Amino acid sequence: MKTNMIRTVIGVVALGIALPVLAHHSGGMFDDKKEITVSGTVREFQYTNPHSWLLVDVTGDDGKVTTWGFETEGPSTLTRAGIRKSDFTPGTPITITANPMRDGRPAGTWSRAIRTSDNKEFSPRGGFVVK
């Protein structure tokens, strides 16, 4: 009986440690088989580890503004991709393409973005390319 209790406690502790790790590294909430493209203005660029977020205010056909969140890599990978925080200051108009959330919330994982002012394209995945 005591052995079963110890095994149960060890199992619960191991599961408690494993689940947050799996959740952090999982991209399962994004639908990698779909892409969406929206246009709007940058609200905020959270250039942070372990993942950065680009928040974009998008105005719908009805005039309602929805803030979309686009997850991307951390600063070191973004820097290798040529993306700096100063590239996306608040108010910057952009068009962004992403793999959307599976549950329909206004968010996705950033594939590429085009800054409207100069038509410059930014692809975070370029930071993984070995040169």
Computed CA radius of gyration, to the nearest angstrom: 19 Å
- Proportion of helical residues: 10-25%
Q: End-to-end distance, in Å?
A: 59 Å
Average pLDDT taken over every residue: 86
Assign the structural class, choosing from mainly alpha, mainly beta, alpha/beta, alpha+beta, or little secondary structure.
alpha+beta
- Spatial shape: globular
Report on this model:
- Strands 1-2-3-5-4 form a five-stranded mixed β-barrel.
- The chain has a single domain (36-128), classed as OB fold (Dihydrolipoamide Acetyltransferase, E2P) (Beta Barrel), CATH 2.40.50.
- The chain is built from two helices and six strands, in the order H-E-E-E-H-E-E-E.
- The model is unreliable at 11-23 (pLDDT under 50).
- It has helices at residues 2-25, 75-80; strands spanning 36-46, 52-59, 65-72, 93-100, 107-115, 120-122.
- Helix content is 23%, strand content 36%.
- By secondary structure, the chain is an alpha+beta fold.
- A hairpin with a 5-residue loop joins strand 1 and strand 2 (52-59).
Which short descriptors sum up this protein?
5-stranded mixed β-barrel, alpha+beta, 131 residues, 2 helices, single chain, OB fold (Dihydrolipoamide Acetyltransferase, E2P)
Write the layout of secondary structure elements.
Blueprint lengths: L1 H24 L10 E11 L5 E8 L5 E8 L2 H6 L12 E8 L6 E9 L4 E3 L9
Parallel strand pairs: 3-5
Antiparallel strand pairs: 1-2, 1-4, 2-3, 4-5, 5-6
Structure described in brief:
The chain has 131 residues and is an alpha+beta fold. It has two helices and six strands, in the order αβββαβββ.
